[in-house]
């Protein structure tokens, strides 16, 4: 049966292509949504960009029919900009008729009363979904780019093998995997079925278990403190793996390991020309507003966590701050907000994106497509600590990226679980 989906503004601002995601069903965009999009179009961030994209998409669909009369979509559905069905006669008392949310809700409510087709309100606003439920309207989130976080890929598995196979793994430097395959660069804890205390750490690649080549490495005085960090080093130090994703709670060492390997690769091995570090400018809590000074002075508060880690890595230098400034002057170290990444091409660089859980799938695509020849990109983040109001553990760009590229040979992923920052940080990550 053909269905009708009424889209809220936040769905289109989250994903401008959402109007094409409903196959051969009816898509209704209330007129109030167009007004809200118009209010956002001048913003100089991802929301403003998405608003402008939505406007261009709708303008391109204008043809022989007016948008208010309905136009055909490429997937077989039909899009309508809804001018009618905005009455609020049967609404509960007290709802402000001028609020955009209530105007959108009214369209969905009246369409559900007057039409024979099932009507669903699609919104990322939890409170609007609650209001819709009270009025008897089916409401749901936009699931097109969501990931089942309860089954999120960890990049690690455990396998039982015979003692003979385990001996062969150590003796011959590998073991052919029999039976079902696994994603490339997935890590495995091999355990002897006869004696579980005998084990080995391995990386799966092209049908074989391979021993770790970099698990015991030390980079800028940093060495792995647990098996997950060994797996992370294996991915970070392998130049054939171009996309690395490290996910874990605060204090598990994601950013520190990435920075240590980046410095090693750029300054010691000369494998890359520059260490480029970026992160989204998304505040935790209330935004502090305008910051005076030069671009570098404005960015310093946002990049301070990166500087803290870099100063720790340069702790043996007489003047760590001066050493970092010297690297920046020489162009070997660059810290850049994600805002300025669009339009760039980044060749032969070691690129680290910290706090990537605050990026939307579209922003992740924008970042990945900036990567030039011989560049390695590392994305770190904790999907359970998201400051972007439009994202959650299932819809953020980091988890989306992991699930989309886990079967590619040039990518690798590890979930780090053990906190190594301090006992206090570990307690907070587990219990709070």
Describe the structure in brief:
With 432 residues, this protein is an alpha/beta fold. The chain contains 13 helices and 19 strands. The protein has helices spanning 9-14, 31-40, 46-61, 100-114, 126-134, 163-172, 227-236, 254-268, 295-313, 320-329, 361-368, 397-405, 423-431; strands spanning 4-7, 26-30, 71-72, 78-82, 119-122, 138-140, 156-161, 175-176, 187-192, 199-205, 208-211, 218-219, 222-223, 243-248, 274-279, 333-337, 349-353, 376-381, 411-416.
Walk me through the structure.
The protein is of the alpha/beta class and 432 residues long. The protein folds into two domains: 137 residues, 5'-nuclease (Rossmann fold, 3-Layer(aba) Sandwich); 214 residues, Rossmann fold, CATH 3.40.50.300. It contains 13 helices and 19 strands. It has a six-stranded mixed beta sheet with strand order 3-4-2-1-5-6. Strands 16-15-17-18-14-19 form a six-stranded parallel beta sheet, sandwiched between helices. A hairpin with a 5-residue loop joins strand 3 and strand 4. Helix 2 runs antiparallel to helix 4 and helix 7 runs parallel beside helix 8. The longest helix has 19 residues.
Which spans have pLDDT < 50 for at least 5 consecutive residues? Answer: 283-288
Instruction: State the end-to-end distance.
Output: 46 Å
* Strand content range: 15-25%
The percent of residues in helical segments reads 25-40%
Strand element count: 19
